[in-house]
């Protein structure tokens, strides 16, 4: 039996009003919450790299979505221009939605794939979560503090060359589902993003070298079948490692536990 639709799903005008009520609330918060938001960008890279990662631009995600994938690349290139080179100084907060703004046709955004209400569908600006996913992976390899993060409540596609643990990303939807992190250190950080022929690439830099590094791992990954429905679970852990003293682990931290509905049948699963 299909999940019962929300009232806002059955009446588009109610959905529109609900979304903009939340958006206006967030805009008000940007001016009243007392946070100092990062806004300075620099073409000059900071001296030390903390972490680098790349994400494939075109992936096989279900059927009949080739054009949405191509459109996504256009969306990514527009959004990246608002983030590349951003400096996060001591006491500042990075806000993805505040920097990127509302994706609209007038800005050149195209219909791309987005996940909403338990299904994959086309939406203006769809696909830019690939940027927030990449940035989050960089950030959790640093002493920066993630203060707002959301992830999808379901997994719509089988893994296709996945290199990062399931549930290690960060989804955004302008502007009330934001991705934010705060710099509580005395150092300045910088996010740099660029494109190669096949990938979106990014790095996190800092103005002075740290004495430690981070290692992020996945534990207890399983597919489950419960009452004829498939689910996926895992845990994301982080180790803080001294660069000296033989790479000694000085701290182990559970970052998140994931449990999400799966909309496909996995090859291997456990009956729950």
| Spatial order of strands in the largest sheet | 8-14-13-12-15
**SS elements, strand count:** 15
Dominant shape: globular
- Give the helix level as a range of percent: 10-25%
Biggest sheet details? 5 strands, mixed
> What's the overall average pLDDT, rounded?
92
Protein name: Vancomycin resistance protein
InterPro entries: Glycopeptide_resist_protein, Vancomycin_resist_VanW
Organism: Pedobacter petrophilus
Pfam family, one: VanW
What can you tell me about this protein's structure?
The protein is of the alpha+beta class and 272 residues long. It has a domain of 175 residues. 21% of the residues lie in helices and 36% in strands. The protein is built from 5 helices and 15 strands. It has a 5-stranded mixed beta sheet with strand order 8-14-13-12-15, with no helix packed on it. Strands 1-4-9-7 form a 4-stranded mixed beta sheet. The chain has a 4-stranded antiparallel beta sheet with strand order 2-11-10-3, covered by helices on one side. A hairpin with a 3-residue loop joins strand 10 and strand 11. The mean pLDDT is 92. It holds the Pfam family VanW. This is Vancomycin resistance protein.
What topology emerges from the helices and strands here?
Blueprint: H1 7-10, H2 12-32, E1 36-37, E2 48-56, H3 66-80, E3 86-88, E4 92-95, H4 96-100, E5 111-116, E6 119-124, H5 129-139, E7 145-148, E8 154-155, E9 180-182, E10 189-195, E11 199-206, E12 212-226, E13 229-242, E14 249-262, E15 270-271
Parallel strand pairs: 1-4, 8-14, 12-15
Antiparallel strand pairs: 2-11, 3-10, 4-9, 5-6, 7-9, 10-11, 12-13, 13-14
């Amino acid at each position: 039996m299909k999940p019962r639709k929300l009232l806002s799903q059955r009446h588009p005008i109610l959905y529109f009003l609900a979304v903009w009520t939340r958006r206006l609330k967030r805009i008000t918060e940007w001016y009243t919450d007392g946070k100092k938001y990062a806004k300075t960008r620099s073409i000059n890279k900071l001296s030390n790299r903390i972490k680098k990662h790349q994400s494939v631009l075109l992936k096989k995600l279900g059927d009949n979505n080739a054009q949405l994938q191509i459109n996504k690349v256009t969306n990514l290139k527009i959004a990246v221009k608002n983030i590349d080179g951003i400096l996060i100084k001591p006491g500042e907060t990075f806000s993805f939605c505040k920097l990127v703004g509302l994706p609209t046709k007038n800005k050149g955004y195209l219909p791309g794939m987005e996940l909403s209400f338990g299904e994959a569908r086309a939406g203006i600006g769809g696909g830019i979560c690939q940027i927030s996913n990449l940035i989050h992976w960089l950030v959790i390899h640093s002493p920066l503090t993630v203060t707002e993060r959301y992830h999808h409540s379901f997994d719509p596609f089988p893994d296709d060359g996945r290199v990062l643990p399931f549930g290690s990303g960060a989804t955004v939807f302008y502007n009330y589902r934001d991705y934010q992190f705060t710099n509580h250190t005395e150092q300045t950080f910088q996010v740099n993003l660029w494109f190669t022929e096949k990938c979106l690439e990014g790095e996190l830099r800092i103005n002075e070298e740290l004495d430690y590094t981070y290692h992020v791992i996945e534990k207890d990954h399983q597919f489950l079948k419960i009452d004829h429905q498939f689910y996926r679970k895992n845990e994301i852990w982080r180790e803080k490692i001294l660069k000296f003293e033989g790479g000694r682990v000085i701290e182990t931290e559970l970052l998140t536990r994931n449990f999400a509905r799966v909309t496909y049948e996995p090859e291997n699963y456990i009956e729950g």
